[in-house]
Design brief:
Number of domains: 1
Shape: globular
Helix content: over 70%
Strand content: under 5%
Distance between the termini: 39 Å
Length: 334
């Protein structure tokens, strides 16, 4: 099977899942009333919120540069920003494609290796997951009786129950098979490492390890942490100001914005293009939990998600042009 065919199949599968999720989100909603609500929304607040998203992306680009610098390379902030934007644009085509795409984009304009760049992106993703978990805990403690119920009943309870409900044989196999596989790899590791494909995988993993190690070697870890707080704070402000675009959500405050930010982060991490469908369902559920009517909650989710996707598409398109200009400049001076 060719690489293009595989990519095509993945695209269709992920898109189909996203469309199915969108169907579940909109199935009980009057499209006529929703279109009327969308027309009445105040998009001035949405445009204002985009400024915070832009600042967050610039800060994220700078933070990525901090991860790369210990590897002996100091990319220009503009190239980091353009590459990051191209990566976000690529995520609209296929989930997780953006990570590789932004590394490839930066690799073409900066002197560094692709494997180590991917390692820095993995390190960044690990940090963002940790940040999201910290925010979940923070939201729960801000109103433990209220939000702990939502996270347990809506997100975790079903998964925990499904694991515990398995038969003893199923649980045994889930533990036994990975252990046997690990033992097989360990025993025959010297023979396995001789294969050309395995050597490439090992080299790739080493590159990733170097990228992850850059976090430990980082000089300004304090600034890195501050940038992380700044980025997520801007995301929260963006969502907060978007509340004012819809009358039904305009009364919600900062804690609600943080709560919806966390849910949106979980929705966007779903394996579908741009979190389509997953974002709508989980944000809608969160707003309904806060007392917003189901149809109005979906209006808010649709406005925020659509504006973000359009913003990333526009920014990504401009960034592709700017990176091509940068490459031409480098060729002229070569």
């Amino acid at each position: 099977m060719s690489a293009r065919l595989k990519s095509g199949i993945k695209f269709i599968v992920f898109l189909s899942v996203g469309v199915l999720l969108m169907y579940f989100a909109f199935r009980n909603i009057s499209l006529k009333h929703m279109l009327a609500d969308l027309k009445q929304a105040n998009y001035g607040w949405v445009l204002f919120a985009m400024l915070f998203t832009l600042l967050a992306n610039i800060s994220r680009a700078y933070r990525w540069g901090m991860l790369i610098e210990p590897l002996g390379v100091k990319p220009k902030l503009s190239n980091l920003f353009y590459s990051l934007s191209v990566g976000y644009f690529a995520n609209l085509a296929a989930p997780r494609l953006g990570e590789v795409t932004r590394c490839s984009a930066l690799y073409e304009v900066e002197k560094t290796t692709l494997d180590t760049l991917i390692g820095t992106v993995i390190a960044e993703r690990v940090i963002d997951v940790i940040t999201l978990l910290v925010l979940i805990v923070g939201v729960i403690f801000l109103s433990i009786e209220k939000f702990s119920t939502f996270f347990w009943d809506t997100i975790f309870k079903g998964k925990v129950h499904s694991l515990l409900a398995g038969s003893p044989i199923k649980i045994f196999l889930l533990i036994f098979i990975p252990l046997v596989f690990a033992a097989f790899i360990f025993i025959f590791r010297k023979k396995i490492i001789r294969f050309h494909f395995i050597k490439k995988v090992v080299d790739f993993i080493k590159g990733i390890g170097e990228g992850l190690h850059s976090v430990i070697k980082m000089k300004n870890r304090g600034w890195f942490i501050l940038h992380t707080i700044f980025i997520w704070g801007l995301y929260c402000l963006s969502g907060y100001f978007c509340f004012f675009s819809v009358t039904a959500t305009s009364h919600l405050g900062g804690v609600a914005a943080l709560f919806i930010l966390v849910l949106g982060g979980i929705g966007m991490s779903a394996p579908v293009q741009g979190g389509i469908g997953a974002y709508h369902i989980i944000v809608q559920s969160g707003l309904v939990f806060l007392g917003v009517a189901s149809d109005k909650a979906l209006v808010y989710a649709t406005i925020v998600h659509s504006s973000q996707m359009l913003f990333m598409a526009a920014l990504g398109s401009i960034s592709i042009i700017m990176l091509n200009i940068e490459k031409r400049k480098q060729l002229k001076h070569a």
